[in-house]
Write a structure and sequence with these properties.
15 strands; alpha+beta; 11 helices; about 20% strand
Length: about 450
């Protein structure tokens, strides 16, 4: 409203000067300036024994404004002129002088007439202005105009009071809405916000507050779920670390308590201790790696790799592992060969985690298939699928969470719960993506997508 009022005032002032203003040498003046100048010009005139003389200052002002002057005596005869155009006469009748008072702009001039009196003698003088100035006489009922003056003052007072009242009421209304917004922000901070009705000119602000509260509540829920899983994971990993430490401690005590254990016993106990130490070291390394990947502290050294051969060798290494010697593992490829840029150690870790996970958390008769193919739009597709027990939708949604451990970890408690999180982080470093598709009783399929630019 203030802006509109300001614009209206500026437009009104501009229209006023456009209608009632003229541009003269000293700047912008009102169109009434020539009439005032003509009235005041007599101060530079004097009677010198019946002759009219013009002071030098008056002539300089005429020259400065580009005006002309003609002085007429009582008989209508010209007695003095300055800069007068040739097309104006040297003698005027009384009626001609009277008509000049209301004459319009013509011949490039608007003529104003006035009278100079001194010592009982009278002269008329004409001043020509090079401006198109309209001369209008307004007649009015003096009695009614006097009454209008009082009404005008009352109207102005009433308008001012109405404006002041409006401003006060508007201030209270605006303060109420601002207070509601401030309270809403405070309530969002205190987590006790009640959604506001998105109506009126503040509807966008109320909508933004409602959206902000929704997003904050969602973020709080995500944080609470993550914190809950983190606490559970810490409790689980603490328990899992104690599991290998117990036999290490137990067999170490047996070795110390035995007076002279034979070499066969020492070898057996040492093997058990070494196995559990390796398991403990693996869990610690997984924990270290996941945080290094999260912070970008792991060195990333991509190089050109023949992908089909790389995956085939990885599968062969797993097949040759005595732990999985009797498991069904197949490798399929629809490509002869393709070359991609990979960090060999990191990518091997990611794919190995997915394959080992499929073998570990499924029944022994489960068949695991590793396949490779291409998609013109997506890039290279690497699939690790099995026909095992599968997973629920809830398990799939949380599978790659750093703190999530599956529902069947009681059967295979050796894992750290970080394998899939590490795999996802490694694939993300390679600008790739990983997705899971699973159904209870039908198996699981992990799909790694490597973009075209990796080739």
């Amino acid at each position: 409203m203030s802006a509109l009022l300001f614009i209206a005032i500026v437009i009104a002032i501009g229209m006023f000067y456009y209608i009632f203003g003229i541009t003269e040498p000293e700047g912008l003046s009102l169109a009434s300036w020539p009439d005032r100048f003509t009235d005041n010009f007599s101060v530079w005139m004097e009677n010198d024994n019946g002759n009219v003389k013009i002071e030098e200052m008056g002539l300089e002002r005429l020259d400065e404004y580009g005006l002309w002057l003609q002085v007429i005596d009582e008989t209508g005869q010209e007695v003095f002129c300055h800069n007068k155009p040739e097309n104006y006469p040297v003698r005027y009748s009384a009626s001609e002088l009277i008509s000049l008072r209301t004459s319009a702009y013509e011949q490039g001039n608007t003529v104003f007439v006035n009278i100079y009196e001194d010592s009982g003698e009278t002269w008329s003088y004409l001043i020509g202005f090079p401006y198109a100035i309209g001369k209008h006489m307004v007649y009015s009922n003096g009695e009614n105009v006097g009454q209008l003056s009082t009404l005008f003052r009352r109207g102005i007072s009433f308008s001012l009071c109405a404006i002041i009242l409006f401003v006060i009421l508007y201030g209270f209304w605006l303060t109420g809405h601002l207070g509601k917004i401030a309270k809403g922000i405070s309530d969002v901070t205190m987590r006790c916000y009640t959604p506001l009705s998105e109506k009126g000119i503040f509807s966008e602000i109320y909508g933004a507050l409602n959206q902000m509260d929704t997003e904050i509540r969602h973020s709080d829920k995500v944080w609470q779920d993550t914190e809950r899983m983190r606490r559970e994971w810490i409790a689980n990993i603490t328990h899992d670390l104690k599991t290998p430490l117990s036999p290490i401690k137990g067999y170490a005590e047996l070795l110390m308590g035995s007076p002279s254990p034979d070499s066969e016993t020492m070898q057996e106990y040492g093997g058990i201790i070494l196995k559990n130490v390796n398991h403990t070291e693996k869990m610690i390394n997984d924990l270290k790696l996941t945080y290094q990947l999260d912070s970008g502290a792991v060195p990333y050294h991509p190089q050109a790799v023949r992908l089909v051969r790389f995956l085939k060798e990885l599968v062969i290494d797993i097949v040759n592992d005595p732990v999985f010697a009797d498991r069904s593992i197949e490798f399929e490829s629809n490509l002869q060969e393709c070359e991609v840029c990979l960090d060999i150690d990191l990518f091997r870790r990611a794919v190995n985690n997915l394959i080992i996970n499929a073998l570990t958390h499924n029944p022994p008769e489960t068949k695991v298939t590793i396949s490779i193919d291409t998609d013109p739009k997506k890039g290279i597709l690497i699939c690790i699928s099995d026909n095992g027990t599968g997973m629920s939708d809830k398990e799939q949604s949380e599978l790659f969470n750093r703190y999530y451990r599956g529902t069947n970890t009681k059967e295979k408690p050796e894992g750290s719960g970080l394998g899939l999180a590490i795999a996802k982080q490694i694939i993300t470093i390679h600008n790739g993506n990983i997705a899971v598709k699973s159904k209870r009783g039908e198996g699981t399929q992990f799909t790694i997508v490597l973009p075209v630019e990796n080739q």
